[in-house]
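ok so i was messing around last nite and threw this chain in just to see what happens. nothing serious, just curious
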Amino acid sequence: MKAKIIVDNISDGNVSGEWGLCVYIEYNDKKILLDTGASALFARNAEAFGINLDDIDMAVLSHAHSDHANGMQYFFEKNSRAKFYLQKTADENCYRKKFIFHKYIGISKGTLKKYSDRIVFIDGKYMLCDGVYLIPHTTDGLDSIGLREKMYVKTDGKWLPDSFSHEQTLVFDTEKGLVIFNSCSHGGASTIIREVSSAFPDKHVYALIGGFHLFNKSENEIREFAGKIRETNVGYLCTGHCTGQRAYDILQAELGGIIHKLHVGLTMEF
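result:
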């Protein structure tokens, strides 16, 4: 398989970045898009890299936040056939609280209704195609993370701490082992690795690629995070977006050669 970073926070020469993520993946004869960044930038970058969005066979939304979902409408304009896969609890209802105010950070309003014929809501472990899977979170206790991060969902007029039940993990079975993509890892990267290991008890998790949501964490929290990752025996990490440079530097000191940095234009092969 081959994966190329279309959007990340770090640009590459003349190809711009933004706070968001989009990954193009080729696996056997399938072309898969993970997320669409925060704007139409992913479409311009894909064109710059010679990727025809109309050739995409299927698309996945990692979770229902705007920096991963706001390019969806542009994808549907460019691609006339691919289905877009979301967890069943994904909705246009995600907010971040600042002081007494709730700022909307979710999927662009009206998208789910307008493109309902192209969107597939899934529940539980799901096989996209042979060797490619979507794994949901075990959300017990994750509302405490929502409280800490000040992230909420509005349900039936009530503000509830986000349990990240709308977040899902994209998994590929490769010769090197399982390769995991989780764009923000709100539920914790080590937890995600364990979830995937539990779903595939006879497989080894080789790689985890995506953001780790450490940009706002203390040094002690980041080092504790590194310790948990070491315990998983994962062999390859590639991270960016919401990880942040400070956290990346600490992780590199802790984890050494297994960690690599995401940036626009990066190509990985497994």
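not much to say yet. The CA atoms of residues 227 and 254 lie 8 Å apart.
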